[in-house]
């Protein structure tokens, strides 16, 4: 499936159009749930060996961690929801999930910038609440225009 790279989805490295091929194939029924499951199996195998050649034999490097698998599983659930409702925005749903893992929901600034926090968490490999709090503190240090919605607007342009 062209432009449908699971690693890019996990790390939010592309625009929403990276989901368009799968959305289109699901909509016109040329992609079944079975084929979609095979697609995810392929990417799990691919991700298991990702960057292994970049490290010496004495180094241990695992890209497929529990957190990455959690992302894969979340994306698999979202794409299966697409089969039932082709109008869903998969990137938005994924970034909301990623933001929720940070456990910052009781904060107004977070609520106004939820997708931005999800995007930053994905790009920076932040999965846990402790690191979410660190990300939040770093966000407070940003220039006022960034902190007051500019990053959220940029994120929204990529999502919609």
User: What overall form do the CA principal axes indicate?
Assistant: globular
Structural class: mainly alpha
Please tally the β strands and state the result: 0
Mean pLDDT: 82
Radius of gyration: 17 Å
Ends apart, CA distance between termini: 21 Å
The fraction of residues assigned to DSSP E strands is under 5%
Q: Counting H and I runs of at least 4 residues, what is the number of helices? A: 9
The stretches of 5 or more residues where confidence is low (pLDDT under 50) are none
Largest sheet: none
Give the proportion of residues in helices: 55-70%
The sequence of SSEs as H and E is HHHHHHHHH
> What is the domain tally?
1
Description of the molecule:
This protein is an all-alpha fold and 160 residues long. It has one domain. Helix content is 64%, strand content 0%. The chain has nine helices and no strands. Helix 3 runs antiparallel to helix 4, helix 5 crosses helix 7 and helix 7 crosses helix 9. The protein starts with 5 loop residues before the first helix and ends with a helix. The mean pLDDT is 82.
């Amino acid at each position: 499936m062209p432009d449908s790279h699971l690693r890019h989805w996990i790390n939010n490295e592309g625009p929403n159009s990276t989901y368009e091929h799968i959305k289109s194939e699901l909509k016109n029924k040329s992609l079944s749930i079975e084929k979609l499951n095979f697609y995810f199996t392929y990417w799990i195998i691919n991700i298991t060996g990702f960057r292994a050649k970049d490290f010496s034999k004495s180094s241990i490097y695992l890209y497929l961690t529990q957190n990455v698998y959690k992302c894969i599983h979340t994306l698999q659930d979202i794409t299966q929801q697409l089969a039932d409702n082709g109008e869903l925005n998969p990137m938005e749903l994924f970034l909301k999930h990623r933001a929720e893992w940070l456990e910052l929901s009781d904060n107004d600034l977070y609520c106004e910038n939820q997708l931005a926090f999800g995007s930053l968490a994905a790009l920076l490999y932040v999965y846990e609440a402790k690191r979410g709090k660190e990300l939040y503190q770093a966000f407070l240090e940003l220039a006022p225009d960034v902190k007051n919605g500019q990053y959220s607007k940029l994120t929204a342009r990529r999502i919609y």
